[in-house]
Amino acid sequence: MLRSVRLVVVYLFVFMVFTLGQMASADEQNGIRPHLTFNLGSHHLNATRDFNEVNPGIGIGITGPSGLGRSEFGLELGQYKNSLNNQSYYVMGSLDTEIARLGPDMALRLGGFAGLARYPSNANKFKDHGVPTFGDWVLAAGLQSTLRINDTYDLRLRVMPAGSVADALITAQISIRF
Q: What is the pLDDT of residues 116-153, one digit of tens each?
């Protein structure tokens, strides 16, 4: 079963890379851009137990104009080493807007995100701690802030509720937009 899931994720990843490459050339005029995201780590604020706070991983996605002023949507698929020291996969969507220019090549963006992360054999523990689950998939949703540099690099912090295991979960990522 686990091998099948990994194979499906690999196929989805390859398909998404191919699709993003096609979209980048076909939709360049629409502002849709592919990106790679590198997951760095997390911090469980006032955690009730010790968690792995080093969470390397990689994701691939797209960002583009949402049609709502200067806001952007984002869609992403990826994998990372989770806080329980296991491999997890995620599907995430986001919406944010530029709130301040911090210089000619730097902008601060604020918004929200929502998606699902796969925690096989641990989803019931999340449910017991007040986090919504769907089978092996756990809901991840919250607020995000992004520092965009040179319209290419995004330094992102995400904050979300963590049920009864911590007051909040804070994650850090770096994205490179193409």
A: 999 887 777 777 777 788 888 999 999 999 999 999 99
Q: How far apart are CA 61 and CA 152, in angstroms?
A: 14
Report the mean per-residue pLDDT for the chain. Answer: 87
The alpha carbon of residue 40 and the mean position of all alpha carbons in its chain are separated, in whole angstroms, by: 11
In CATH terms, 2-177 corresponds, of 3.30.70.2750, 2.40.160.20, 1.10.1200.120, 3.40.50.720, to 2.40.160.20
